[in-house]
Automatic annotation (TrEMBL):
Region of interest (Disordered), ranges: 1-21
Membrane topology category: Multi-pass membrane protein
PANTHER family referenced in this protein's UniProt entry, alphabetically: BLR7065 PROTEIN, INTEGRAL MEMBRANE SUGAR TRANSPORT PROTEIN
GO biological-process terms attached to the record: transmembrane transport
Compositional bias (Low complexity): 1-17
Keyword Oxidoreductase: no
Protein name: Sugar ABC transporter permease
GO cellular component: plasma membrane
Location of the protein in the cell: Cell membrane
Matches recorded under PROSITE patterns: ABC_TM1
Main location: membrane
SUPFAM superfamilies referenced in this protein's UniProt entry, alphabetically: MetI-like
Source organism of this protein record: Antribacter soli
Amino acid sequence: MAAAVATTPTTTPTAAPGRARSHRGWRATPWLFLLVPLGLLVLFTYVPVANMVWYSFTDWDGLGEMEPVGLANYVRVFTDETYVQVFLVSLYYLVGAAVQLVLALYFATLLSFRTRFRNLFKGLIFFPYLINGVAISLVFLYFLRPGGTLDAVLVLFGVSEPAQWLGDPGIVNVSLAATSVWRYMGLNFVLFLGAIQSIPSELYEAADIDGATSWDTFRFIIAPGIRRVVGLSAILAISGSLSAFEIPFIMLDGANGSTTFVIQTVHTAFEFHKVGLASAMAVVLLLIVLAVTWVQRALFPDEKVDLA
């Protein structure tokens, strides 16, 4: 009689239910930490932006009923001479932003290498950015006023009739843009300085061995090495020039032809009680900034890292 052979079925081990639930809970933990900041971001950023877009299609004074007007507010922004003029004022700040980037890059390159009193100069360049904007505006208001500090210095050099720095509509925006350059150059200076100092020193040593000049070192080592930081600083400078508000508002409140786009938007909303039109102006500014950002991203794309 043949002996019966007992066989035992083979089973595949399965994860314990408790361990599976623990794994799912671990994956959900980051989202729990992000829940509050994402909620605040939506509540205080995206919801107001959505409301602003809706207001821009209405004729609303901020208190009464809203009357839909379609694209009338946008048509007025681009056709009314009053609102077109404030776009031109932004060109002064745009030129000032370009000058600011050039000066910041020059001083950052110069002070990245051995220079006497370089730490002192670093502090002097960055210090204005640490000062409150209101304080700077008040200081330059007295500095540029008739008979102020600048006029007194010019008289010492033989200038008998200094210009009306804040009273002449032809040069008032130049004065305000120059103040903005002095105010914000320190930020770009620090960004450029950190980027230049992050370049490996071996590249500079190799350039010295090959007999490269200072211009060659800047052109072939420094400029490519800080390309991304230059792109970031450019987008910040352009956005800041388009949304200039603090210094011209505190110093002159838009007088003598110094009204910027943001100042005009504030006046339209809170003085003329045209919230719908002001919202359309804000949306236009937002779209311009987004377009500039898109161009910057196209010119300076993210570098892809090959992990192969």
